[in-house]
Amino acid sequence: MEPGNNTGVPEFLLVGISEDPELQPLIFGLFLSMYLVTVLGNLLIILATISDSHLHTPMYFFLSNLSFVDICFTSTTVPKMLMNIQTQSKAITYAGCITQISFFLIFLELDNFLLTVMAYDSHIRHMEPENDTQLSEFLLLGFSEQAEIQPLIFGFFLSMYLVTVLGNLLIILATISDSHLHMPMYFFLSNLSFVDICFTSTTIPKMLVNIQTQSKAITYAGCITQMYFVLLFSGLDSFLLTDGLRQICDHLSSPVLHGHHEPPALQTLVLACWIMSVLNSLLHSFVVLRLSFCTDLEVPHFFCELNQVVHHACSKTFINDMMIYITALLLGGGPLTCILYSYSKVVSSIQKISSTLGRYKAFSTCASHLTVVSLFYCTVLVVYLSSSVSQNTFNCNILIYTVVSPMLNTFIYSLRNKDIKNALRRLLGSTPGKESVDPLQ
């Protein structure tokens, strides 16, 4: 591997539209007025669509989101320009420049995406008669309707949820508090732990509340929201697992350089994962909003799963089905291929370890990592690509990738990792044992 570029760039200079000092007040006034019109106008649109029940339709839902994105888009560039004119400075720091580029690209893509969806929405509304049937709620059937086993299901899921949340919180605290873990592999691990907490919190608490209240209902808006966040955090899980394993490969291939990556590069990579996951979730959610549902629907799961919601629709679902297959292949099959390739490099690097015990420990750790990763990706692919599995098999696969996999990540990346265990001992005030020299072990 080539060494990173260590050239320090303290700042960039933003030349602006003109360097003529006589034109600066005119430019300032022009851009300030346009900025204020943009912000105030779009805020009024957002407030109008929120406060008026007559505007609670897909068209105005997209419009209000577009208005919010437009405010953020202009706020990414214009305020900095106005400040530079006022202070007679052209400077922007390196970190500030990278951050500005990142948010500019995010809101630019969101703008393009929302405009495309709005055009599609307009086309559909003119092609098909509007369905005035109002769907109030879905029913989440869960795993069983037998009253006598509900306490057992409640205790089982509550215990798994608590283990997942507490275990991942400890990993996050350990990686933040211990300077020995301030390296790329653990940066991605702490992000993965945060996402796993959010992932399980999207589904299990609602299930536990339903069991306690003996209710199966979830509102239409609640179902769409839950589906959105499930897609968001499952996508992030997929991307972060891939990036984390790449960091393991980098460490094994060149341990000298490990930990010397530029922090902005890592943050940009995680930001890119968020952007792709958000766009994927928005894409599916917006297209589901176009579907018509005839009556209250029974979803045979403990949360609103995309496939089941789509297949219970009364309107045509061809576009939804195609999107599910394509995104499952891209976001499931693509990262899984990258991970298998990464592990081939890991195995090749492990074979170079001279110690037999060291090779055994490394292979053992890799096997446990690969088991959890395979469980996650294979069950996701079965859920979204297969249409011939039984309902029990379907439920089992959903349980594995939404609940079991995030819980297992806690054990795999903490109990089998000496650096994490030593950091946890220091965090809890006990004396750590001998520190490992390899974060993979």
UniProtKB/TrEMBL annotation:
It comes from the Eukaryota. It holds the Pfam family 7tm_4. Its main location: membrane. GO terms for molecular function: G protein-coupled receptor activity; olfactory receptor activity. It is a multi-pass membrane protein. Residues 41-129, 167-413 form the G-protein coupled receptors family 1 profile domain. The keyword RNA-binding does not apply. CDD domains: 7tmA_OR7-like. The chain crosses the membrane at residues 26-47, 59-79, 152-174, 186-205, 217-236, 322-341, 362-386, 398-416. Keywords: Cell membrane, G-protein coupled receptor, Membrane, Olfaction, Receptor, Sensory transduction, Transducer, Transmembrane, Transmembrane helix. It is found in: Cell membrane. GO terms for cellular component: plasma membrane. Belongs to the G-protein coupled receptor 1 family. This is Olfactory receptor 7A17.
